[in-house]
Amino acid sequence: MKDEPVATNLLTKLGSAFIRKEPYGLVLIIAPWNYPVNLTLIPLVGAIAAGNCVVLKPSEVSSSTEKVLAEVLPRYLDQSCFAVVLGGPEETGQLLEHRFDYILFTGSPHVGKIVMAAAAKHLTPVTLELGGKNPCYVDDNCDPQTVANRVAWFRYFNAGQTCMAPDYVLCSPETRERLLPALQSTITRFYGDDPQSSPNLGRIINQKHFRRLQALLGCGRVAIGGQSDESQRYIAPTVLVDVQEAEPVMQEEIFGPILPIVTVSGLDEAIAFINRREKPLALYAFSNNRQVVSQVLDRTSSGSFGGNEGFIYLTLPALPLGGVGHSGMGSYHGKFSFDTFSHHRACLLSPSGMEKLNEIRYPPYSDFAQQLISWAMGSQSCTLL
Fold first, then answer.
1. Where is 21: in which H helix or E strand?
2. Which domains does the chain have, with CATH numbers?
3. Are 289 and 141 in contact (CB under 8 A)?
4. Active site residues
5. Is residue 73 within 8 Å of residue 82, measured between CB atoms?
6. For a Cys staple, 307 with which of 80, 86, 293, 352, CB 3.0–4.6 Å?
7. Residue-wise burial string across 307-322, b where 16 or more C-beta atoms lie within 10 A, e elsewhere
8. pLDDT in tens, 17-76
């Protein structure tokens, strides 16, 4: 929070130049339902740490957590610096009619556009943490069991209801045939012969999302899993093959325990496939060849990237969490949360006297004066000719 000193040039050498982090003022945080405690409190902490007051809107979809947050937070935080607003889309819409100094929204790109349009009416800056279809390239040069372990864990964690989860796999037909039995073995090891009875596999948040996911099971061909039980909102860990790019499962973010595998001829086709779609929130590449992983990193763009790894990088506060393009803008996490909710104010304090030293700055300008000014500004200057 301290003022951050910055370098000066000869023209400002007698002054003090620094960046001051100031709070924006009143922040609106609209949180999602899939990690309703984590994704509500982390931005709340960052906003308050930066000196802001916060209007907090938890998701009404995770209704029990919403009520607990509204009840418990006032016991621990000064109520003069935050307020919890309950309700659904109508209440959120009413909130967005008001002017805030900053808005952070986590959710879908569709709702993100609504939030951004509302913010634009007041020129309110926003951070949008949006979803997307996160690609996962699996190279021929890999250990299929290692890949299966890591991909399955991150795909089926929280029943696939994670914005950073791998959304589909790109690999060659040969690698697909090696990967499928490895995935089946991993799913059985993780969740047993009857995943529905496993205490380690979550359920779908509500009936609406269950029916949406159940419809996606009709895309391509089910190679693993595919079972569902509406009474429990259960969908088995599922792998789909022979899916077409135009099918719904490849057009919308899945947000469930379904993993399509799309075959490509190799690395170049995989990268072309990724680059002709919207920029994802996360992108993953698995290969024993480090150059292959580096190529995927260098030739694509995404909010975050995992090489031979999933979203375990979320455990590192030193890395920002944020999207790019269609998957969002801005970032937070750790100190990035403080920076996001702080206005970085450029400041220069100069002495009121010693005016004789400033005369070189004033017109009329001789050739010598112009050369002297250019020299005094040094490498930090920018001259437009």
1. strand 16-23
2. 4-130+331-344 (3.40.605.10), 135-315 (3.40.309.10)
3. yes
4. 129, 163
5. yes
6. 293
7. ebebbebbeeeeebbb
8. 999 999 999 999 999 999 999 999 999 999 999 999 999 999 999 999 999 999 999 999
